[in-house]
Input
Amino acid sequence: MTAGTVIVRLPKDLYTRLDTLAKQERTDLVELLNRLATSGVAPRAQAEPSTNAFERIVGRATDLGVSDLAEQHDHYLYGTEKQ
Output
């Protein structure tokens, strides 16, 4: 398979953000786009499908290492002072 040329039209603000990111990473825009495009291509391992909605939610739970999250949720969500 041979590589060809493809023209992609991007909104100006998106192009600017991508170009800035490429410069920050000291690479060219084509290399950045290639890396971004291929990073999402790898197949993901599928978890066993659960019939129970609660089990699916618990399966996505993450330990944040915060012991007072329930009591101080406003602090963690909105930055208010702890009570």
User: Anything to note?
Assistant: DSSP finds four helices and no strands in the chain.
